[in-house]
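Narrative of accomplishments. A recurring question from our advisory board has been how the design workflow behaves on a single, concrete structure rather than in aggregate. To address it, we present the structure tokens for one chain from the evaluation set, followed by the sequence designed for it. No filtering or post-editing was applied between the two.
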């Protein structure tokens, strides 16, 4: 999904301090697209890694955020269509 993301912090894989998810992207795999993340922690570590390597609670948090963001995007599209019909 394109556009702005909300701040999501996960533990740094190297040191455990908070790390910000700075990018989300998919790469092709033999099983279809695989979700990946870019992380940067407060001490400067940077990672690009498969999303499924995050601890389970962090994966659930990421999935919940994606679902909530998708809901917001759909609602905004619906509002835009309604406004377009009334002004067009």
């Amino acid at each position: 999904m394109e556009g702005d993301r909300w701040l999501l912090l996960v533990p740094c894989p190297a040191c455990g301090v908070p790390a910000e998810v700075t990018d989300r992207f998919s790469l092709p795999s033999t099983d279809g697209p695989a979700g990946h993340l870019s992380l940067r922690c407060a001490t400067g570590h940077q990672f690009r890694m498969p999303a499924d390597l995050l601890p389970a609670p962090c994966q659930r948090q990421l999935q919940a955020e994606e679902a909530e963001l998708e809901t917001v995007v759909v609602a905004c599209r619906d509002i835009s269509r309604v406004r377009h019909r009334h002004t067009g």
